[in-house]
Task: structure prediction
Amino acid sequence: MIIEFSVKNFRSIREKVTLSLVADKAVSRKNELPDNLIELEDGLFLHKTVVLYGRNASGKSNLLLGLNRFVDLITNSHENKVGEQITQYETFFCDLNTISAPVEFEIFFFLQNTENHFIKYHYQVSFDKQNIISENLNFYPKGQKAKLFERSQNQPISFGDYLKGSKKIIEDGLLPNQLFLSKTASFRIEFLNEVYSYLSNKIVPLIFHDQNFEQEIIKDILIPNLKDNTFRQNLLELLKAADTGIVDIQYNSLSGNVETSHRFFEKDESNEKTPIPFSYQMESLGTKKLLILAGAILNILKNGKVVLIDELDKSLHPLLSKMIVRLFLSSENNPNNSQLLFTTHDSSLMDGELFRRDQMFITEKDYMGQTSIYNLSSIQGLRKNVPFEKWYLGGSLGGIPVVYEPELVFNGK
Result:
């Protein structure tokens, strides 16, 4: 589970910005939506879901994109060749002092050990266009910080006492544009394998602005899992709950299509279910997105993953967005404590009966074009029972554009 993620000098983010999933101690854990929290050892509580609001181009998407880039760097940098640029390098471009400075990513997270205890880890990376500047991994096996490894540019890697195995072999073959953690993926090294697996496989970005990405979900998640009766039953339950009119779904191996079934009527009498290829134009854009999203989310809930969704509300009715959020907030539907991090412009989700104040974040951009972030619990005097949506749209909470009526010119007049 993610505790917090920080990013510095990435796209619109100049100074260090942190998205924390730790519940604010000032917000009641017992009286303010306690089911929204994951209770861990030593009295620590984490959020199952956080939502980011803000005007267009304020940087809310960049914060999730930064985590996405971090995961991509961890997963794939071991494939970088000699002299290749690090493709995840994108700096704050509005300042000449930062345009060629390092990008910094940092994450705190929990992993569950074999004794079912949650152990905290801290992983930090900084890099420029061609070099990893620093890379550090620490953890807290007995509540105290312990080093796994520390790496600085042009210096030998310093290893902690907990690490065993073929570390020197990996270090000798390590290129300046590769992460050591990424390089360990093909070796059996305790702690490092678990960390790599979590960061590369358990944090999942869902990018619904990309048709190719949607096709990948259909191919890699939806089609293989439709053979599982439990998955198929749960998927149908979600589609029926969303009032899509879909009464059955299956994969047709002969046509290679996912097929949905609807009831057809003749003189008000219901006939047999008729399958329709999923690509068929009868299904609306919203229904197609919901089907793909539902399949991906069921996989995430089953495996206790973290999902990043930019613009959850795109092509979805507000009530469907709320239904998806409630899946993650429900202990019954989310038994493995999956986490949902998402952005939206849907102000109807800014609801005190759905979210705690410390789950709702606002992104702002200043005159220099740099992003900052705060949550509603940090606004002094803001009570849990105020009409958040009304106050937000009225400008009391920040994060909205200053809009005026434009005066257009046509035909040179």
In short: The first strand starts at residue 2 and ends at 8. The chain has a mean pLDDT of 91. Residues 1-202+304-413 form a domain with the Rossmann fold fold (CATH 3.40.50).
